[in-house]
Amino acid sequence: MHYQVVFAPTSIQDLGDSVSFISRINPEAALEIGESLIDEAEAALSKQPFIGAPCPEYLDRSIKYWLHRDYRIVYEVDEAEETVNVLRFWHCSRGDWPIGL
To answer: Residue 98 above 70 pLDDT?
Structure first.
C-alpha cells in the first residue's frame, strides 16, 4: 500500500516559518531540517498512513498526528483516494496547537 502524500499550503507555511527562524542561527541546519522533514514525512506516511494517533482536538478521526523530531505533523488520510494530506508541521516549542487548519 502506497499512498500519495500532498502538502497543504498551511504545512508549507509552517515549515517556512521554522526554517526562517532556524536560519537566523544556522542556515545549513535550517535547510537540512526543512528538507528532511518533507522527505521523512513523505517516506513514512506514503507507506504507513495510519502511523499516528487521531488528533484529540477534532471529532474527525481521519485527522491524525505523528510526533517526529520536535514537530507535530498533522495529516488527514483519505482512504478512498489513497492520499495523505499533510496539514501542519507544528514545532512543539511554539506552544499551543492552533485548532484551525
So the answer is: no
- Residue 21 belongs to a domain: yes
Residue 100's pLDDT band (cuts 50, 70, 90): low
Report the C-alpha gap between 29 and 44 in whole angstroms: 22
Q: Is the pTM of this model over 0.70?
A: yes
Q: Which of 25, 5, 100 is closest to 57 using CA atoms?
A: 100
Judge whether 82 lies within some domain.
yes
> What sign does the dihedral 48-40-69-98 (CA atoms) show?
negative
Residue entry with cell 504507513: 48
Residue 51 neighbours by CB distance under 10 Å: 15
Give the residue numbers spanning the domain of 39. 4-94
Average pLDDT over residues 52-74: 89
Give the CATH number of the domain where residue 86 resides: 3.30.2310.20
pLDDT over threshold 90, residue 95: no
- Gyration radius (Cα) of the chain, Å: 13
